[in-house]
Amino acid sequence: EIPRFDSAAPLSPAAIASDVQTTAHDGRPDVASSFSSPSADAAASALTEQPSAVASADPRTEAAGETALPGVIQLPPDTPLVGSDGAPGPSAARASVHPGMGAVPYAGGVAFRVWAPHADGVSVAGSFNGWRDDADPLAPEGNGYWSVDVDGAAAGDEYKLVVRAGGQAAWKRDPYASEIGLVNRNCVVADPAAFDWGEGEWRMPPWNELVIYELHVGTFNDPAAGGAPGSFDDVAARLPYLRDLGVNAIELMPSLEFAGDFSWGYNPADIFAIESAYGGPAALKRLVKAAHEHGIAVLFDVVYNHFGPSDLDLWRLDGWEQPEGGGGIYFYGGERAKTEWGHTRPDYGRPEVRAFIRDNALRWLEEFRLDGLRWDATAYVRNVNGNDGDPAHDLADGWSLMQAINAETDARQPWKLHVAEDLRGNGWLVRATGDGGAGFDTQWDGDFVHPVRRAVIERNDGQRDMNAVRAAIEHRYEGDAWKRVVYTESHDEVANGHARVPEEIWPGNAGSLWSRKRSTLGAALVFTSPGIPMLFQGQEILEDRFFRDGVPIDWRRLDEFAGIHLLYRDLARLRRNWFDHTRGLRGRHVHVHHVNEADKLVAFHRWESGGPRDDVLVVANFASRAYDAYELGFPRGGEWKVRLNSDWAGYSPDFANQPGYHTRADGGPRDGMPASGTVGIGAYAVLILSQDG
Questions:
Q1: CA-to-CA distance for 588 and 576, rounded, in angstroms?
Q2: Which of 136, 361, 478, 530 is the most exposed place for a label (fewest CB within 10 A)?
Q3: R_g (Cα) of the chain, nearest Å
Q4: From CA 333, how far away is CA 512, in angstroms rounded?
Q5: Is 102 helix (H, G, I), strand (E, B) or coil?
Q6: How far apart are the C-alpha atoms of 160 and 171, rounded to whole Å?
Q7: Res 77 pLDDT > 50
Q8: What is the 3-state secondary structure (H, E, C) of 605-619?
């Protein structure tokens, strides 16, 4: 397990060597054969697992026969890197006296440190030394680490590492680089202390009050549609809109540096660098600061199940590769390298790689003050094929890495939210690490989204399964309502062969009456079921078709579907108990007491402590028939007031406006409840009722 430290400083080489235990790894060949990025063939070919071993042979042997590759400088194998004083390379340099990985500014200069255990030598070239590859060699520190202090270098300087191995020298981006130039792809020295966060205090909203809005920075608010992608500053411009909607947490799809300017973000090339096309690290910090000033938390999507595979300078960073042609020191070789996105799964058992990922998680939570992390596709961190019940392909090192990072970050900042996107219905993801679980606070719930989407998308009322809807509402992990995130739309659910819910209901006619009625029926269940509710960008304005990283949200729809937007706003406010008469929607408890499979209605009771202004009754009609007086059980007698009727014509002028009247529950016991009464409810509509104090 990765050790804990009192500060967020990256793990030191000594700490890694002495404190982290790991399993054996893939055998190392005698020669570094390539510095190139993973080719299409390498990403697609089947690899064979090799026996675990640690070779003691000198990786420089046999290097003289190597052939130069495109973009690689061929050097004689005995050519030393030369220091600025003319003395031979590594022996002429002094190791840095400053801690930290990557480029770390200090008063009067910058320290550079990299892990490259198979390199013959490393130097740093940049704007501070005229881009000379022989001016500032790094000194070996032991355990494969190299470092140097460069006086006169400063924040804002550009640089690259020059790594020499096997007679070749390659210009590489720093694995820990905080910023990558938009045009030239050089690393940029960043000062983490330079940003002014101000003096305002910020507190993360309680998890049972969260309303999450997932968004893609490049398309959420893109004023230059058809040109450059949207930026963090463009997202910040719509924070007042999100606050008014009732959102108090945004979840950013991956914004780590990737190849090109347009991407979903799940192909990170430089995991410590913020995407330059979005504005870079300073712009992300501006967004976080502004969001907090608006009362909105910011969650950040991280990708640790694979890196790249495109534009991946980590690939064979120091020239070494596995015998079967793997990616070198940062990656598994053989069978364990394989993922659906390329053969670039990180080596979770290698101490330095574990430290690399741990440092990355802490940087977002501490330096950038982000409020939580959503881990992408954790099933592929814990199993080669992303499966449960497949022990032969389990990745024990991946499981223990998730445990270690979650345990450490919880110990440091327990209020921050750690979200798993696993989608295997596995409760161990959200079980405490002390009990053997992975230690996530919550996870996306496939057992909610899939049955609810089916229930509202199905064309035939008779095929809607109310028992499946009941199971979706009542489902939870570890007996805890907040250990799941519930939604009907996410970036995955509205792409990859799927579309937006209104589009799925009526392809090509997402603005139709039934698309509006049934998509909002599903949304009402999101806001009234136990769990943390989540929307996907544009859902509240009936965005149609499917998600694409080059097609921005059409904000003209806010005017066209203003009533639908109002319905989402009202649901979000009731979910957060905005008016102090729906406290039960923030509560842990639910009882689906009425299931009418024949007529396609369900009703359920939500509460925290119970009583007036706490008990909430939700009635959902999944059929085209409306009712003037539908009888069902109530949690207690007395008057119940309608807080929301989704059939109200104010939400859309062609809604039927079926009266959903205040009612008295003066009847006898029914549906296992102590009282009963009648309600009016429209077709494909939802009622939310509660009592005054």
A1: 13
A2: 478
A3: 28
A4: 52
A5: strand
A6: 6
A7: no
A8: EEECCCCCCCCEEEE
Does this model's pTM top 0.85?
yes
**Residue pair 464/622 in contact by the 8 Å Cβ criterion:** yes
Q: What pairs with residue 151 in β-bridges?
A: 109
Contacts of 497 (CB under 8 A, 6+ apart): none
Q: Are 190 and 281 in contact (CB under 8 A)?
A: yes
**CB proximity list for 599: less than 8 A, separation 6 or greater:** 623, 625
**Which residues are 257's β-sheet partners?**
270
Residue 106 dihedral angles phi and psi, to the nearest 5°: -135, 175
> Amino acid identity of 242?
L
Torsion on CA atoms 561, 566, 572, 573, rounded to nearest 10: 170
Q: Are 683 and 626 contacting, i.e. CB atoms less than 8 angstroms apart?
A: yes
Lookup result for tokens 């202390």: 193
Nearest to 572 by CA among 241, 210, 250, 239: 210
For the chain, the residue count is: 693
Alpha helix (H) residue ranges in 247-365: 280-293, 351-362
CB 189 within 8 A of CB 110: yes
For 599-624, give one letter per residue: b (16+ CB within 10 A) or e. Answer: ebbbbbbbbbeeeebbbbbbbbbbbe
Q: Which amino acid is at 489?
A: E
Q: What is the enclosing helix (H) or strand (E) of 639?
A: strand 638-645
**Helix H or strand E segment including 466:** helix 466-474
**Residue 676 predicted with pLDDT over 80:** yes
CA–CA gap between residue 35 and residue 38 (Å, rounded): 9
Dihedral sign from CA coordinates of 186, 269, 287, 8: negative
List, for residues 469-519, the tens digit of each pLDDT value.
999 999 999 999 999 999 999 999 999 899 999 999 999 999 999 999 999
Terminus-to-terminus CA distance in the chain, angstroms? 52
Distance CA 472, CA 89 (A): 64
Structure tokens at 105: 């500014």
The continuous run of DSSP H or E covering 442 comes out as: strand 442-444
